[in-house]
Amino acid sequence: MARLSRVCPVGVPQHVMQRGNNRQVCFADEQDLAAYAHWLTEASRKYQVDVHAWVFMTNHIHLLCTPQVENAVSRMMQTLGRQFVRYFNSRYQRTGTLWEGRYKSCLVQEEIYLLALYRYIELNPVRAGIVEQPSDYVWSSYASNAQGKVSELCTPHALYVALGNAESERQARYRQLFEQHVEGELLTEIRQTLNKGLALGNERFKAEIEKLTGRRVTARKAGRPAGWRKKDKVCE
């Protein structure tokens, strides 16, 4: 089945995920993680992408980001991917691909899903059983968003800023969001839209994106299209 072309409207947040080929390790130690974080910071600045949340796991990464110019996310990820592969192959004396095809992404409706995506991303190590609390995992944006750690990579989204007038107030309210995990239908919806490259939002949001871009961002209905029996009879 032909894959959908990318949609990257300026100012619309995106959830991005990239995985190691065949789920292989793409970060073997702290040096690899630090190198990736450094090049991501450089690429996000170069291509004008605001990165709001992230997590770097052993064999995949998640980002929540907003492009400020056309095709910014694609350019950032292409540059970052090639740069890290060259580094990784040189360091471990290997050849060939590292990533599992092109990265996955989906557009995100801010009002309904943005803060849920913050939590989904930063709770990834908890769901994986690596740590008990998101604060225990070093390679995510939780320390910046929830605890005020200074980060060159992190650009707060307007909805995050709106959590409070002062930084301490925002951080406290942000931590309260993590009293509930992302699970059930919400977890399924986040994963399905990302894997299919669709849009995470209500029907109005999806209709607006399709009108703006001319590209489908909703899932097709399962089964054969309406009227297929009549068409089959005509062809007999």
UniProtKB/TrEMBL annotation:
InterPro entries: Transposase_17, Transposase_17_sf
Annotated protein name in UniProt: Putative transposase
Gene Ontology biological-process annotations: DNA transposition
PANTHER family: TRANSPOSASE IS200-LIKE DOMAIN-CONTAINING PROTEIN, TRANSPOSASE, Y1_TNP DOMAIN-CONTAINING
Gene Ontology MF annotations: DNA binding; transposase activity
Record Pfam families: Y1_Tnp
Natural source organism: Nitrosomonas halophila
SMART domains on file: Y1_Tnp (SM01321)
Signal peptide as annotated in the record: none
Listed Gene3D superfamilies: Transposase IS200-like
Domain Transposase IS200-like: 9-124
